[in-house]
Amino acid sequence: MIIALGVARAAPGRLADLLDACGQVAEESRKDQGCLDYGFHASISEPDLITSVEIWRSQEALDAHMNHEHTRRFLDAVSGLTEGEPQMQLLKAEPAS
Asked: To the nearest 10°, the Cα dihedral for 82, 13, 46, 53?
């Protein structure tokens, strides 16, 4: 299982646009084969700070997701909606028994 954790800060005045783009890609991505969970979360103390949590069955599923049209559209849109470059970490996890 692959867990992708991302953090981005909305550019000034662009939070609503960023949240809209996040909502669209999340809705489409949840339909991707191998997607176990996909969501975005706003910070309570810093509302412009958005965290993404994606859980994928395998690296292959994540790789396929990265090549989908909805993912490419989102990545293009995000470049103008965030301050700086979003940060992403990939973690390999095994279910706890």
From this structure: -40
Q: How many domains does the chain fold into?
A: 1
1 and 55 Cβ atoms separated by less than 8 Å: yes
Report the chain's C-alpha Rg in angstroms. Answer: 13
If one counts every other C-beta atom within 10 angstroms of the C-beta of residue 76, the result is 10
Predicted confidence pLDDT, tens digits, the chain (97 residues): 999 999 999 999 999 999 999 999 999 999 999 999 999 999 999 989 999 999 999 999 999 999 999 999 999 988 889 998 899 999 999 878 7
Phi, psi of 43 (to 5 degrees): -70, 140
DSSP class of 72: H
The residue range of the domain holding 18 is 2-92
77, 83 Cβ separation under 8 angstroms: no
